[in-house]
Description:
alpha+beta
Amino acid sequence: MQVYLVGGAVRDELLGQPVRERDWVVVGSTPAELERQGFRSVGREFPVFLHPRTGEEYALARLERKTAPGYRGFVTEFSPAVTLEQDLQRRDLTINAMARDGAGALIDPYGGRADLEARLLRHVSPAFAEDPVRILRVARFAARFAALGFSVAPETLQLMRAMVRGGEADALVSERVWRELERALATDHPERAFQVLQDCGALAVLLPELARAADLPAELDALHRATAVTTAQGQPDTAARWAALLAALPVDDVEALCERLRVPAEHRDLALLAARLHAHLHGAHGGPASLPTDAERMLSLLELGDAWRRPERFGRWLEVWCARAAAEAQPLVTVDRCAARLGAAQRASAAVQLDAAELAARRGPEIAALLHERRLAALRTLAPAL
C-alpha cells in the first residue's frame, strides 16, 4: 500500500500559499484493509475514508467512466491495480494533478508544475469534458488565482465552449451552481469567475438574466469594487457582493435568478433590496450615484429601504451603493459625502419616538402617519447638511 499527498495541498505549497487542507490517495489497497487499520468510511459513491487520528480524507485510487449526461453520469471503478497516474489523469486541471510521495518527492505526470510557472489553468485530458461542474471550477480557480496572473489556457477555454454547445452545462443542478458561485464570490477577484463563464458561453445558460445585462462590464466592475465590503468578522460579505453584481438588473430578473438558483435568503433579500433601490434612484434622481438631497425624497428612500426595522441590512446596502457609485467613476469624495449624508438621515429619523400617550390615542395607520410626519420634520432640521 502506498499513500500520496495529492491535489490542492501540493499546488498551494508550490505557490507558496497556506495549505488549508490535505487530501491523500491510497494505491494498492482495499476498503477492507483500510477499515482494519481504523479508517472510517464516508464516501457514498466511491471509497473515501477518514484517518482515525487526523480526520483527513484518504481516497482509494480510482477510475471514472462516463455513462450518462451531466455530472452524475459516472461509474467509479477502483481496485488495488489502479495506479497513481491513472487516478491523477481523471482530475480537472494539471495544477491539481500533482502528488508527493512519502519522501516528499514531486510526482507530476501531466505538467502541472510547468503550468503553475506559466500561470495557466489547463485541463489534464479530454475526459475534462465529461463533467460540466469543471466549467464552474475553472471559473472559480480563475477568480481565486487572478491576482497571481493566472488565465485559462486557450485549448481549455475552447473545450469549455464545446461543452456548453453540447448541452453539458444544462445538466447542472441549481444547488451545485450556487455552491461554486458562492465560493467564487468569496475570492479577491470574483468578477473574473463571471467573465470566464461569459467567455465560454456558460453565463447565458446558467445566469441568463445577468448575461443579458445592458452593460455587463460595468456590473463586473461593481462586483470587483464591492470586494472591499466585509462582515463584522472580517470575512468576505458574499451577500453584498452578490447584491452589487445584480443591483442594476430588473427586480423581476433578480427575483427569478435567486429563486432558480435557490440562493440563501440573506443573499436574495439584499440583492432584491439593492435592485429596488437602484430602480428607485435611477428613476427619480437620474442615476444610482445621485442620492436625494431634499427631506421628502430622503425619507422615501429610507422607507423603501426598511431602514429603521432592518438598519444592519440597510447599512450593507449603502456599502453596495458606494461600490456601484465608484464603478460609475464618481469622485470618491462625492461618494463618501453622499453616504455620510444618508447615514446621518437614517440616524436622525431612527431617533424619532412616540410616547405612550400618543400610541394609546391612535390606531395603526394613524401611528404610521404621525411617525412619517415626525421623521420628515427631523430630516428637515438636517436640510443644510443634506
